[in-house]
Structure formats: C-alpha cells, structure tokens
C-alpha cells in the first residue's frame, strides 16, 4: 500500500471557493480541484495557477488545479460546495432559494456520480435548506452531508465579545444554535471568556447588542461590500470543519446536521453542536434548553422549514 494526499474538490470558484482553496493548501490538508461552470473555465484555471505559484513562497506542497469538468473530481475524498449566487444589499438569504436550489441539484448529481464516497460540506445559501437539497439529491448518509453556518456565526459573536472586553479572541468561546438566518440563536448561557460566564463580565444590555449584531452579521458585511457577501471568515470556518474531519480530530463544533428527533425535530437540517471527526458528523450533542431558548430555536427551525417546504415539489433524486 501507499499513502496518498486527500483529494478535495471545491465546486464554485468565486470569492468563498477560492479563499477556501488557498487556506486548505496553506494548511496542506490535501490537493485542491476548483470547479466552476464551462464559461468560467479559463478564469478558474488562472486562479488555481496563481495560487499554486504562491506555494514556493509560502512553502506548501498541495497541488491546486482548475477545471469545468466533473470528471476531474473522480473519487474525491471531500467536496465543498460554494456554487451559487450571493445576495445583494436588501435581500435575505432565503431570496436565493430558487436559483441556488437548481444549482445545488445539478452539483449534487455530479458529486453522486463522480465522488460517491465523498464527504460533503455545503456553504451555498440559504444554507440549511441547500444542505437538505444536497442530502436528498445525493442520497448519501447523513454523517457525510454537512452544512456550515455555526462556526462562522460563533466566530462573529466571539469577535464582538473580544472587542467589547478588550481580550484575546482565543479566550472567548461563544455558542450559536439554529438556522443561518436572522433568527439564529446565540446561546449566552453557554458562552464564556476565560472560563468565566459572559453574564458575569458584560451587561445584559451590551450582550443583547452583541447577539443582535451576530444575528445580522452577514447582512452587515453585505451592506459594507455593496457587492457580494463575506468570504474570508466563511472560508476560515469551512477549513476548520474540513480539518476536524480529515485529521479525525473529534472537535466539538456547530454544524448544520440532519435531525431525526434531536431537539424535537424530524427531517430537517439545522445548526446544532456536533462532534466532527473521521466519520463526518459522528454525533449530535443535545443540550438542555430553557423554555425561552427552546422557543427561539423553534422560531429558527420554523423559518428553515418554510424554505424547505417551498422546495418540496422538486424531484430531488
Ligand atoms: N453558509 C454561509 O455561512 C455562507 C454562505 N455563503 C454563500 O455561498 C455562496 C457563494 O458565495 P461567493 O463565493 O461569495 O459567490 P461568488 O459569486 O463569488 O461565487 C459563486 C461561484 O459559483 C459558480 N457557479 C454557479 N453555478 C455553478 C454550477 N452549477 N457549478 C459550479 N459553479 C457554479 C459561479 O460561476 C461563481 O464563480 C452564496 O450562495 C453565498 O450566499 C457565503 C458566505 C457564508
Ligand atoms: O450574509 C450572507 O449572505 C452570506 C452569509 O451567509 C454570511 O456572511 O453569513
């Protein structure tokens, strides 16, 4: 036998896809294949080559290639889906559902055909519903189809807390549950700085401001950019999840997971705390919630359900 590098495909070579590619290569988590639509083939190859030419300077040996042919993702170990349109100022993530669901079905069919054993990480919005579409279309087991939102939402929360306290981001550990929309649920009761409950360090009023800013964190960046949406922090979040899986780290990280009774929900993808390791989502951690917290989670789950229901007439398989 011989050892091989991981083969990591990234579908969608736009802002999030390319930033993720570079971060994966810098960490040498595997060789990266960037895939975009045929009309973007040359720019995709160009971006890949440009990144590869950074490797002698940055001293990484991951290969990076660009393509528009799904043949090139054959037998990939990991596929990250960033294909789809981003929102514009004034839009919600849910406004992207019709366009991105079509793209997600097409992408998922190709992954099923060419990389049937792969682990999939979905980023495209509205991400809870898009992860559901990917799961239904590929028919892969639920531990191998995962969505990203909570790592990013928690990172935003932690950034604002560290700024408020004037302390290192390394010492802040927040906790965000629920769907990736304005009704997500930052769980203050489970959030700490240096092991000290946040409520002991920051006033209730200020915490409420941070919670609100976190909920609208994606929209804040959309407004500031004027065109497109966030990509540095989303890419960093994807890479943390990929690393947890390919290194079998068994990290406790929030993931968008398929729920089958957990937290009282069935047949839905929603952001919950999970253990991420060599088998993808190895388990969902169920936490006791207060009535107020459970009600907020219910509101968030309801808004995800509504988007999923819009898609129910689609033939996923
Ligand atoms: N879940 C999350 O936390 C986050 C989700 N997002 C979402 O990620 C998606 C991508 O965002 P960006 O990279 O900024 O957008 P972008 O517009 O820069 O890139 C998207 C790329 O997808 C490609 N594409 C479209 N259809 C395709 C197909 N059928 N096959 C392959 N590639 C295809 C486009 O040509 C484009 O290059 C958006 O839907 C955005 O809302 C972005 C940030 C965070
Ligand atoms: O806000 C958006 O449209 C992109 C996204 O999901 C985020 O940055 O959280």
From TrEMBL:
Q: Which organism is it from?
A: Halobacillus yeomjeoni
Matches recorded under PANTHER family: L-2-HYDROXYCARBOXYLATE DEHYDROGENASE (NAD(P)(+)), L-LACTATE DEHYDROGENASE
Q: Per the record, a Pfam family?
A: Ldh_1_N
Check the record and name the HAMAP family matching this protein: Malate_dehydrog_3
Which InterPro entries does UniProt cross-reference here?
L-lactate/malate_DH, Lactate/malate_DH_C, Lactate/malate_DH_N, Lactate_DH/Glyco_Ohase_4_C, Malate_DH_type3, NAD(P)-bd_dom_sf
- Give UniProt keywords alphabetically: NAD, Oxidoreductase, Phosphoprotein, Tricarboxylic acid cycle
| Gene Ontology MF: a single term | L-lactate dehydrogenase (NAD+) activity
The molecule here is called Malate dehydrogenase
Q: Which Gene3D superfamilies match?
A: Lactate dehydrogenase/glycoside hydrolase, family 4, C-terminal, NAD(P)-binding Rossmann-like Domain
